[in-house]
Amino acid sequence: MNTGLNQKWFLLQIKPNAYQIATKNLNRQGFYNFTPMIQVTARRLDKFKSQFTPLFPGYMFIKLETSSNPWKRVNSTYGVSKLVAFGTRPNPLPPGLVENLISRCDKNYILKNKIAIKAGDSVNVLTGPLSEFVAKVDKIEKNKRVWMLLDFLGRQTLTSIGIEKIAKTTTN
Q1: What pTM was computed for the model?
Q2: Rounded Cα–Cα distance for residues 34 and 110 (Å)
Q3: pLDDT tier at 172 (50, 70, 90 boundaries)?
């Protein structure tokens, strides 16, 4: 991949369920791409299953050398639908947008929960059998275990969970 100063981030639309194919083929051509992921839990039959899914389904970010106009090469890559364009040419994303998103992810591009959570906050459980429950934080231990009060079948139940498995609700 060329490491010139004219590299900018663009938004790339992916064909349905083709993230791995598109990533493999883009990497083979020397393009750097980024797909932020989040962990979600869904109920399948009588079991809960956690899996990683793209934060922006159907899209990924790609860093391109703008002076070489690689649009046709990228658009013809197996697994790629097209570079998102407003007009005739793809438009680069605002500087710092993708870099900020990358800084909020771990080394596997999984989005980390960076919003400070404190006792008394309402939180959503993101994964596990309690996913989609809303609870109130009771206390947070030094090892990042969160004790929370869960309203379960009309009773307040105290339970603990890892801080990475909860997210602060938008309203308290």
Answers
A1: 0.64
A2: 11
A3: very low
